[in-house]
Write a structure and sequence with these properties.
By secondary structure, this protein is mainly beta. The chain has one domain. Helix content is 3%, strand content 52%. The strands form 4 sheets. Strands 1-2-11-10-5 form a 5-stranded antiparallel beta sheet. The protein has a 5-stranded antiparallel beta sheet with strand order 4-3-6-7-13, with no helix packed on it. Strands 9-8-12 form a 3-stranded antiparallel beta sheet, with no helix packed on it. A hairpin with a 2-residue loop joins strand 3 and strand 4. It is elongated and about 50 Å long. The chain starts with a strand and ends in a 10-residue tail after the last strand.
């Protein structure tokens, strides 16, 4: 949670994850490759070394699961880390979450659109590590901490 200095109260609620990029990949916002920390309410793109978009994170929202019209826009806050990693935060106004009229559960889970075939995906969430064949897919496992895509020899499929 972010807090305002004047009020001492939370101003946003943030879901954070670590994004691991493959060699040669870059983070783009509004069509511009990002090198420094930034925020945006627009889509994010991951592009490969040739400039081809391989992953899109559309604008994020939070909404009530039972009533998706009760929604609020979110923004992304990204900061570069070591070794091609980015700290990614999805921030929403704390006042929306704290509203007494809010009906839980809430969904805060932006879609990830993979725009090219990938041989495998490695999905990591805390201590959970699931690896499986990905092939062509249009949405990549919402709800996990991050997704690593690579073109290599396929690994065994996900076993439920």
């Amino acid at each position: 949670m972010s807090q305002t200095a004047e009020q001492g109260q939370a101003s946003t609620l943030a879901l954070t994850a670590l994004l691991h990029l493959l060699p040669g990949q870059g983070v783009y916002a509004s069509g511009i490759q990002q090198q420094l920390a930034f925020t945006t309410e627009r889509s994010l793109e991951i592009r490969n070394a040739t400039g081809q978009t391989v992953l899109v994170l559309p604008p994020a929202t939070a909404y009530e699961q039972a009533n998706p019209r009760q929604a609020v826009s979110a923004h992304y806050r990204l900061a570069p880390q070591a070794d091609g990693q980015w700290q990614v935060g999805i921030e929403t106004p704390w006042s929306w979450w704290a509203d007494p009229a809010r009906t839980y559960p809430i969904v805060l889970d932006p879609w990830m659109q993979v725009l090219q075939p990938a041989d495998w995906a490695n999905i990591v969430n805390g201590s959970t590590n699931v690896t499986g064949c990905a092939g062509d897919f249009g949405a990549a496992y919402p709800g996990y901490g991050y997704v690593v895509l690579a073109a290599s020899t396929p690994v065994p499929p996900i076993v439920a």
